[in-house]
């Protein structure tokens, strides 16, 4: 193991606390050097859409990418667009790194989002829907049904749908009803046959019913009708004696960003519960309507919902293609990616004399690096905590929980440990967006079982992924640590790409002990050895590493920077990378989502390359690798290069030291950045270009398939030995 003290993490002593980039730079960085973060996010969702449009992908996977696009865009409006609008209305400063008026930025975002929604709708209508039909899965309209099919569906409507429908009239005695966010609705105009008066009614499409109603099924062939089509063609049953004049589908998106002034509240949980109730009634932020909606109905919606013309998105039906997630229930493996079964990490495989692995014994032999979902979460992270809960020599378990599944075995392991008399500390981040309510439930369940539950530091989200097990061995307390890049969530671990490091290293154990003390008590600890910790020191530590590469390049030494993140937005980090590029440092950035950095600009970033990879798994790990004159400094962790991660969250990166692990991470990076690997390339103008096939039309390397093959090959090689 290579031993480094303060220099490893860029933390610890007074000189480091005062660290600044002290050198005066000869060249000034130009204005307009950042790409707009919101438009960059929309470009990310366009890449998701391009996967749905790809005819070489299995068609049910393409339908799933359409649903992901729709879900992503909903969250973008609920949080990002809503947040920008709220700041504009309240007069707060609007963060923009492109030097343009906030209202202009908001208008551009709306226009680009609408363009993508139209493209999204066309991808469904012109590409994915016909491809599904060719494969035997038809999504049909009412007009395409036979008489017998309509009769059968009418019986289903009467038995399963009609009883839960709630038509709401709008007249002087009935005010315009509340429209819940993301609900699918029918706007209906009717005429009273006796008085001749026209009325308006709103009908919510029940979200608890299947979005696609099965019409027929014959082996692998099936036909489905969207639920709103079934309802709209049987409106006469809901309004007997009335003439149905017109009906149109619409959908409202509300501001669902949660804002809590923690300094002004005495009880975070109570304040959060009140804010979650308020979220349901957040102001409208987007109105989606079918393109054939008449002006009379649209004008009524705009007036009653108090929404602007700019916030109206006319789209061809059907609306809310998140419903395509429902097609995931169709049993057609031939229309999906070939199954990949995670393997157990080599170090955690049972020995010849035992059916169960001893994870503590494996970790004592050396650091273990696991790569999910290629290597199993269940037989590594989950098994680690379950073994700790049962082991009589384990005295204490400390863990952070940011997002976890509703039936999480991780939560159960902590409960089992507490009930077995162990000291258990769970730091539950109840402010994890859209998981707040679930996390409150689990926090209370943990408290009832005797777990010490804390909620972190005021004003900061605890985003780091940490677990620490204290075990007594021959009268000595040993620290078994896990630092991950992803959540302790068994469900998402099957589709999120992440790394996790297990170690018994005393430096890491002491670091985590100090960090947990800071999070659960009042300690303010600044000295960490193998960790970089935000918000106080992570940014500073990375800037030191970047600047060291710049200086090495100026001195004629080899230099290289490689960074893998979900988002690259932070201006200080980006400027440091620009200056490293100006000094001749090759900089490679592997980013999944937002990137405000402009690569390939002469005199500023011509040595920077930016690539993005999307596929069957969501690239989620964060890696930071610095050449360091031949002594690689490589970190993994949960931090993205965003203001919130560096300044308003508790984050932790751990330095990876084992030579085999360094090679694995650097080899993965080299494969990702290779021209022969399928990826998107970012240009200086902010445009992403997909490179998925060579000049002869042959598919380029899929890094996720290759990684799975490599992991399975290593396991087979061990089995042969």
Automatic annotation (TrEMBL):
An intermediate of this reaction is the autophosphorylated ppk in which a phosphate is covalently linked to a histidine residue through a N-P bond. The lineage of its organism: Bacteria, Bacillati, Actinomycetota, Actinomycetes, Micrococcales. It comes from the Bacteria. Belongs to the polyphosphate kinase 1 (PPK1) family. ATP binds at residues 72, 496, 592, 620. Catalyzes the reversible transfer of the terminal phosphate of ATP to form a long-chain polyphosphate (polyP). Mg(2+) binds at residues 403, 433. It comes from Microbacterium alkaliflavum. Its cofactor is Mg(2+). Its EC number is 2.7.4.1. CDD domains: PLDc_PaPPK1_C1_like (cd09165), PLDc_PaPPK1_C2_like (cd09168). Keywords: ATP-binding, Kinase, Magnesium, Metal-binding, Nucleotide-binding, Phosphoprotein, Transferase. This is Polyphosphate kinase. The active site is at 463 (phosphohistidine intermediate). InterPro entries: PLipase_D/transphosphatidylase, PP_kinase, PP_kinase_C_1, PP_kinase_middle, PP_kinase_middle_dom_sf, PPK_C_dom2, PPK_N_dom, PPK_N_dom_sf. It catalyses: [phosphate](n) + ATP = [phosphate](n+1) + ADP. The keyword Metal-binding applies. Residues 615-645 form the PLD phosphodiesterase domain. One of its GO terms (molecular function) is polyphosphate kinase activity.
């Amino acid at each position: 193991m290579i031993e480094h003290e303060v220099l490893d993490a860029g933390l610890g002593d007074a000189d480091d606390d005062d660290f600044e980039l002290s050198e005066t730079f000869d060249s000034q960085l130009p204005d307009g050097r950042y790409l707009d973060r919101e438009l960059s996010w929309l470009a990310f969702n366009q890449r998701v859409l391009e996967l749905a449009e790809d005819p070489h992908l299995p068609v049910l996977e393409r339908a799933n990418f359409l649903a992901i696009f729709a879900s992503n865009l909903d969250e973008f409006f609920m949080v990002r667009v809503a947040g920008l609008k709220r700041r504009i209305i309240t007069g707060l400063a609007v963060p923009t790194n492109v030097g343009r008026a906030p209202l202009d930025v908001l208008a551009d975002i709306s226009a680009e989002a609408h363009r993508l929604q139209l493209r999204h709708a066309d991808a469904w209508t012109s590409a994915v829907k016909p491809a599904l039909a060719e494969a035997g899965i038809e999504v049909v309209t009412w007009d395409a049904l036979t008489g017998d099919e309509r009769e059968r569906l009418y019986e289903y409507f009467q038995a399963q749908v009609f009883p839960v429908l709630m038509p709401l009239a709008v007249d002087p005695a009935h005010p315009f009803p509340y429209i819940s966010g993301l609900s699918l609705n029918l706007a209906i105009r009717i005429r009273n046959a006796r008085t001749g008066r026209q009325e308006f009614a709103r009908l919510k499409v029940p979200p608890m019913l299947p979005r696609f109603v099965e019409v027929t099924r014959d082996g692998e062939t099936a036909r489905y009708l969207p639920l709103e089509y079934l309802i709209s063609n049987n409106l006469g049953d809901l309004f007997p004696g009335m003439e149905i004049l017109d009906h149109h589908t619409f959908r409202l998106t509300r501001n669902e960003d949660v804002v809590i002034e923690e300094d002004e509240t005495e009880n975070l949980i109570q304040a959060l519960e009140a804010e979650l109730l308020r979220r349901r009634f957040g102001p409208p932020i987007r109105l989606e309507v079918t393109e054939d909606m008449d002006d009379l109905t649209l004008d009524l919606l705009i007036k009653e919902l108090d929404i602007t013309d700019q916030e109206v998105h006319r789209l061809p039906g059907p609306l809310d293609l998140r419903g395509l997630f429902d097609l995931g229930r169709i049993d057609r493996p031939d229309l999906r990616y070939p199954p990949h079964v995670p393997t157990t990490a080599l170090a955690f495989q049972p020995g010849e004399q035992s059916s169960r692995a001893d994870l503590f014994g494996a970790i004592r032999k050396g650091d273990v690096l696991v790569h999910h979902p290629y290597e199993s979460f269940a037989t590594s992270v989950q098994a680690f905590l379950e073994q700790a809960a049962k082991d009589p020599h384990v005295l204490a378990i400390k863990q952070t929980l940011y997002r976890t599944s509703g039936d999480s075995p991780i939560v159960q392991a902590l409960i089992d440990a507490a009930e077995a008399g162990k000291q258990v500390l769970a730091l539950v981040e109840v402010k994890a967006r859209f998981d707040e309510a679930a996390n409150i439930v689990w926090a209370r369940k943990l408290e009832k079982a005797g777990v010490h539950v804390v909620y972190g530091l005021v004003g900061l989200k605890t985003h780091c992924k940490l677990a620490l097990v204290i075990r007594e061995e021959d009268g000595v307390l040993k620290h078994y640590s896990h630092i991950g890049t992803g959540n302790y969530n068994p469900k998402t671990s099957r589709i999120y790409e992440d790394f996790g490091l297990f170690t018994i290293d005393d430096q890491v154990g002491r670091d985590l002990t100090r960090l947990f003390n800071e999070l659960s008590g009042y300690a303010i600890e600044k000295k960490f050895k193998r960790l970089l910790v935000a918000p106080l020191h992570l940014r500073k530590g990375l800037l030191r590493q970047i600047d060291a590469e710049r200086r090495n390049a100026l001195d004629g030494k080899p230099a290289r920077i490689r960074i893998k993140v979900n988002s690259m937005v932070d201006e200080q980090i980006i400027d440091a990378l620009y200056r490293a590029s100006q000094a001749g440092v090759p900089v490679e950035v592997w980013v999944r989502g937002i990137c405000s950095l402009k690569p390939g600009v002469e005199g500023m970033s011509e040595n920077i390359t930016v690539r993005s990879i999307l596929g069957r798994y969501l690239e989620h790990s964060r890696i930071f690798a610095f050449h360091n004159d031949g002594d690689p400094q490589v970190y993994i962790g949960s931090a993205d290069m965003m203001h919130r991660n560096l300044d308003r969250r508790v984050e932790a990166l751990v330095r990876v030291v084992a030579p085999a692990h360094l090679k694995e991470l650097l080899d993965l990076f080299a494969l990702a950045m290779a021209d022969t690997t399928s990826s998107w390339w970012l240009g200086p103008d902010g445009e992403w270009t997909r490179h998925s096939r060579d000049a002869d039309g042959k598919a380029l390397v899929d890094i996720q398939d290759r990684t799975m093959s490599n992991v399975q090959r290593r396991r087979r090689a061990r089995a042969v030995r």
